[in-house]
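User: Predict the complex.
Assistant: Input components as received:
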Amino acid sequence: MNLANGRYGEIDLSSGETQEHDLEEGYARSPTAFLSRIDAAIADAGEDAMAISSGILTGSLVPAAGAGFLRLVRDGSEAESMCPLLGFVGVELKLSGFDFLVISGKASGHGYIWIRDGIIEFVSSPGSASLDSWGRTDLIRSEQGDGRIQVIAAGSWAESQPPSSQLILNYWGGEDKIGCAAEFGSRKLTAIAFRGMGELDLEDSEGHFAASSELYGKHLAGLGENRGLASFSSAAEHEGYSELLHRSIACYGCPFPCRSFYKLFEDASVKERGAQEPGYLVYDVAAVEFLTSLELSPRDVITVLMRCARFGAEPVSVATAASAGGAVDIAAIQNVLESGGAGSSANSTLRRGFADSFEDVSDYATCLALGLCPRYWAKAGMDLEAIGRVSEPALGALINIVD
Amino acid sequence: MRLLFEPMACIACGLCEVACSLHRDGVLTPMSSSIILHQEDKANYFGLVLKSASEGLVLARPEGVTHGAQSSDSGGPGAKPILLREPCDLCDGAPRCVTMCPTGCISKEG
């Protein structure tokens, strides 16, 4: 299959058993059909199952085609049942040999799922239970001996399974606004890690390259100068952020990044390798806007985001809890974080993420099913005709986007 | 002709890697490219390593560009080391990485 592996994996955490299933030719003929196929696989695995998936075009040269997603079976809109997986996570998942992975059951002890070269296994890791999300990522990369392993980690907050817990992707947070980390905690699943070393076939590589490079050029001409996070958040235009800004960094295939790294513990102008943990990568626009509205300084906002990431806690919900007693400061937020999250609630009104990129949530679901970043495509302008035109040479067929 | 680098313009999007593999093997993968994105997440330290035919390894790091390196610390044991890869052939005069690079980090001379 073009741009696909043609199979999905399944793991039952209760028994540790894994399976591989072939996928039917044409199963991803449209975003709707693709999501339906994943839902069917989830249903086959059991009531408590969930899935992590790449998108139909993930890893292609369609602009910003680096997205994957975590899918939960929940009542409500797609915004409540899909969590984006950005950075290089979606691409590495697809290159690891599976189009998606279905996870069911609960492990008897803490551990993580490790996927590479078409192999899935549950690695027991009792020592990781006491680690924060950064420690869990460090441990996996050290154990498996590769610094580019992609890790979706829960933090200590997931242990008590509050809806305000948050998954952390390679140290950074901003995608999980629907409490997926609580699902990890309930299964004693500390992380899912993968390394993609496969390759993706295309029907017409020359045609895909030509069409995509033309579209990138058109987008860049219209987007103007990129200022990283400040191009997406008015709060980040404050000079206090500029003083801490190191460099902006993109997800796979994105020409207009929203992710800016701010240095808290080192001069931001330092180019060389210096401190090992000098700061934090910020792209949680909703959290930056909310924390700024609480009159926290840029340095304090970034500090809060970093601490929340380490605990695996959703920052808007944490700050909402901390502000219940009045003014918010770092100490109040630290107290909430150290509470462990048990009994804490999610701020479902103000905590917003990538799902709010579009007014119509169906565009959000379409983007993720296609493997495209919703935030980028909202910025560049959702253009289904262009997506179809650029992807057709890669797939060898015109995708039916409006199924 | 040779490739030129402006490392601080790099945004680590990875398009150069897959554009290279597309030319070389007609597939999308970072495993066969002559150019590698080197990335250290927590330090936000990243840059490019090119295996060139005429200048050895070209390290385009934030500190600057160096030529003729004998080794690179890019890629772990799971990745295919760049020294085992084919050197850049400049895509027969139209480097794909230059075309795809969205920031002008990679350009060509000559």
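Residues 7-201+359-395 of chain A form a domain with the Aldehyde Ferredoxin Oxidoreductase;  A, domain 1 fold (CATH 3.60.9.10).
Let me know if you want any component modeled separately.
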